Amino acid sequence: MQIEIFIKRYPMREPFATSRDVISEIPVIEVHLQDRAGWIGRGEAAGVDYAGETVESMRDQLLEIKFKVNDVLSPDQLQGLLPAGGARNALDCALWDLIAKQHAPQRIWDLLKRPVDRNIQSCFTIGLDNETRMRQKARAALQYQCLKVKVDSKNPLQQIEWVMSEHPSAELIMDANASLTPEGLIKCMRALEGSRVTLIEQPLAVDEDDILAEIDHLIPIAADESCVDVHSLSSLQGRYDAINIKLDKCGGLTEGLRLLDHAKSLGYRIMVGNMCGSSLAMAPAWLIAQEAEWVDLDGPLLQRVDIEHGIHYQAGTMSAPSAALWG
After folding, report:
1. CATH number of domain containing 302
2. What end-to-end distance do the CA atoms of the chain give, in Å?
3. Residue 121 and residue 318: Cα distance in Å, rounded?
4. Residue at a domain's end among 47, 73, 105
5. SS3 152
6. Quick check: 321 pLDDT over 80?
7. Can you tell me the distance from the alpha carbon of 297 to that of 246, in angstroms, rounded to the nearest whole number?
8. Contact of 22 with 16, CB cutoff 8 Å
9. 221/85 same-domain check
10. Among candidates 198, 203, 233, which has minimal Cα distance to 215?
């Protein structure tokens, strides 16, 4: 099979801040995988920036193995060619798209025998900002049933309160991006117990999260940076209540589904997230969203433009990806 790799850059609607950084655009790789019959499958990845991945490093990984990709390559065989991360994600999702096209008019969920609800409710993310701007963003997001709020270690409770007071009915997810201290987390949970905050995402740094086993979880806690793939799950037991599955982290839909099934068997609650990107990146994660309790697939909503044939969003409700887009 032939591999083509494209680098694209999607500008954000406005600078998007977390406790870790501020971004004005999302660079992604788009991978096209063509078989001898001329069918083309596509996949997209932004990679894991905090792990050092860039579009250039992902492109180089793919170029190193491109001659090992042949017409009989299966998704399971692909797992051995690349480590978990954005490069494998883009190639794996392109392979699944190609397989779906080869079996048209069946869709990817038919081939995988996965039940689907064609309308999935995604949260909308409120980026970290000053009080005036976070309040404005919350008022502008009144149509969304769930908001994910980026916070930092300085004013997490105030940042949640600004959004909560402007949107009186939304369910909230607090995402600290590993910026809190154990004492700060305990303070937040005590203050927010019984509130509309239903999940706290990755409150502590990865090398500090062992303390979570000793803290009362007054609000469920989800692992994001601490959860990469199936191999992560054993170290998370007793520390986390939920995991955030991101295809860029685990390395594609194949591993994402494996992680989903194994995590559920161990009793973890499921969130599915994204590293931003176009609807081409959201479409494979939409399959994970079918069995997720919290869905954060709003990447295209945070960007100025989307890819052609993008997923339709209506007040947070995502339509099924069209066959022209993916799968």
Report:
1. 3.20.20.120
2. 18
3. 6
4. 105
5. coil
6. yes
7. 10
8. yes
9. no
10. 203
Q: Is 101 a catalytic residue?
A: no
Q: What mean pLDDT is predicted for residues 81-99?
A: 97
Distance CA 6, CA 28 (A): 8
The dihedral region occupied by 316, where left means phi > 0, alpha psi between -120 and 50, and beta the remainder, is left
pLDDT tens digits, residue range 227-282? 999 999 999 999 999 999 999 999 999 999 999 999 999 999 999 999 999 999 99
For residue 7, what is the enclosing H or E element?
strand 2-17
The structure's pTM equals: 0.95
| Region for 71 from its dihedrals, namely left if φ exceeds 0, alpha if ψ lies in -120 to 50, beta otherwise | alpha
Structure tokens at 188: 């937040």
Q: Confirm if 123 and 173 have CB atoms less than 8 A apart.
A: yes
Q: Which amino acid is at 306?
A: D
Share of the chain above pLDDT 90, in %: 92
Domain enclosing residue 186, as ranges = 120-318
Is 115 a domain residue?
Answer: no
Q: Is 4 helix (H, G, I), strand (E, B) or coil?
A: strand
Residue tagged active-site, from 137, 148, 150, 249:
150
State the catalytic residue, choosing from 101, 137, 246, 249: 246
- Closest by CA to 21, choosing from 211, 198, 250, 276, is 276
Q: What angle do CA 253, 16, 131 make, to 5 degrees?
A: 130
Q: For residue 140, what are its two tokens?
A: 């502008």
pLDDT at 99: 97
Dump pLDDT digits (tens) for 120-177.
999 999 999 999 999 999 999 999 999 999 999 999 999 999 999 999 999 999 999 9
